[in-house]
Amino acid sequence: MEDKGKNMDLRRMLVTGSTGFLGSRIVREYGKCFQVSGPGHSEMDLCDEASVKAYVDRVRPEVVIHCGAVSDTGWCQEHPEESRRINVDGTGYLARACAEIGAKLIFCSSDQIYFGSRGMEAHREDEAVSPAGEYGRQKLEAEKRCMELCPDSVCLRLCWMYDRERLSEREHGNFLTAFLEALSKKREMVYPVYDYRGITDVNLVVEKLCQTFSLPGGVYNFGSENEYNTYETVRRLLEGLGYSTEKLKKNETAFAGNPRNIRIHMGKAEKFGIEFPKTLEQLLSANERLL
Fold first, then answer.
1. How confident is the model over 160-184, as pLDDT tens digits?
2. Does 274 map to a domain?
3. Is 264 inside any structural domain?
4. Would you list the DSSP string of the chain?
5. CA distances from 234 to 225, 226, 241, 245, 278 (A)
6. Tens digits of residue pLDDT in 203-260
7. How far apart are CA 236 and CA 199, in angstroms?
């Protein structure tokens, strides 16, 4: 990322969900080279179109990174109308406001859009999808709102993300922190064998976000590819780090009747020079940092 920290005329960036797992890291990194605004609910209510428009008109950002969402998939499933107001309607309000001032909108979508798709191949952006979960359905509809209301929007289908560092006490554990804790305490690890998904270092996502600011409008997979199921990923990780797999157990119940495959194919983004290491490669390359 270009260092513009000494430039007094910094570009303006708005980050929604700025206290969340991804948003907080974006604010920390891009605050070095942008004037970053991270409005709280009292400053900009995503459920209120007038509030969204007023805030965007006042701040007039050049780049908007929309991380704000109800991301608890279980809660979305149980409260579809309430979560839809934020995940779909709020995204539409923001897209319209961005279009009116010419801001570049980067929408953080999800690989959950592929949950329910048939086949075991890695998914591409142009395939027909019919998400099985409410969260995935909402993200898909939000993408459509972005493209209809602000055609220059870039919608990024993000994977499961991890980081060793916790930026706040409120932050939940993630794949890496759970793995390292089980390893250090010699606890049993149980991972599903019928679950296929990419797992991505959030710091790489943040680092490569700047490359999306110049992308043509559209939908892009954005994260690490992974050829293995979650159990096999962890097994190979343990072996690669020189640990016994004795404590590693298979969960053969989850998704047994219909394996979940939400793996992404990165070919489209790679044509624009955006590349991520594969899931296992990245975890193994971080050997010294992990331990």
1. 999 988 887 777 779 999 999 999 9
2. no
3. no
4. ----TT-SSPEEEEEETTTSHHHHHHHHHHTTTEEEE---TTT--TT-HHHHHHHHHHH--SEEEE--S---HHHHHH-HHHHHIIIIIIHHHHHHHHHHHTPEEEEEEEGGGGTT--SSSPB-TTS----SSHHHHHHHHHHHHHHHH-TT-EEEEE-EEE-S--SSTTPPP-HHHHHHHHHHTT--EEEESSEE--EEEHHHHHHHHGGGTTSPSEEEEES----SBHHHHHHHHHHHTT---TTEEEE-STT-SS-EE--B--HHHHTTT-----HHHHHHHTHHHH-
5. 15, 12, 10, 9, 14
6. 999 999 999 999 999 999 999 999 999 999 999 999 999 999 999 999 999 999 899 9
7. 14
Domain boundaries, position 210: 11-160+201-223
Tell whether 242 is covered by a domain.
no
Q: What's the total number of domains in the chain?
A: 1
Q: What is the DSSP string of 26-76?
A: HHHHHTTTEEEE---TTT--TT-HHHHHHHHHHH--SEEEE--S---HHHH
Q: Six-digit token pair at 280?
A: 């296992």
Q: Which two tokens stand for residue 212?
A: 């999306």
Q: In CATH, what number is assigned to the domain containing residue 57?
A: 3.40.50.720
Dihedral of alpha carbons 15, 170, 47, 148, sign = positive
Two structure tokens written together for 6: 């000494």
Per the confidence metrics, is the pTM higher than 0.85?
yes
Largest CA distance in the chain: 58
d(C-alpha 266, C-alpha 127), whole Å: 13
Q: Which residue, among 68, 218, 47, 205, has the nearest Cα to 143 in the 3D structure?
A: 218
95 in any annotated domain: yes
162 phi and psi, to 5 degrees?
-140, 160
Distance CA 191, CA 254 (A): 9
